[in-house]
TrEMBL record:
Belongs to the cytochrome c oxidase subunit 6A family. It comes from the Eukaryota. InterPro entries: Cyt_c_oxidase_su6a (IPR001349), Cyt_c_oxidase_su6a_sf (IPR036418). SUPFAM superfamilies: Mitochondrial cytochrome c oxidase subunit VIa (SSF81411). Residues 1-16 have a biased composition (Low complexity). This is Uncharacterized protein. GO terms for molecular function: enzyme regulator activity.
């Protein structure tokens, strides 16, 4: 798109002075936006590379200090209460037999 605008700006005979001035203004605006985009890209690249070691360090500390969480359930007498035997036998189907 920038090439098309520049060709209109350079065309002296085919475009009038107003079209050349508008094309020149568009080119200046596009170059200004491109320069701003380059600055913003460089800024966020620095921010990303600065945060990378911090995030890696926090992940390392989190994983280093991890410990297992074993839950022991109390042995309540009503947990294994049954009125009659199961069809498959005295042991529970999905549990540890007592």
């Amino acid at each position: 798109m920038l090439g098309a605008v520049r060709s209109v700006a350079r065309a002296g005979r085919s475009a009038g002075p107003q079209a050349r001035r508008m094309a020149t203004d568009v080119i200046a605006q596009m170059e200004k936006e491109a320069a701003h985009a380059e600055k913003e890209t460089a800024k966020w690249r620095v921010v990303a590379f600065a945060c990378l070691p911090v995030c890696a360090g926090l992940a390392f500390l989190t994983l280093k200090n991890a410990h297992p969480h074993h839950r022991t359930s109390p042995d309540y007498p009503f947990l294994m209460y049954k009125v009659k035997d199961f069809p498959w036998g005295p042991d529970p189907l999905f549990g540890i037999p007592k």
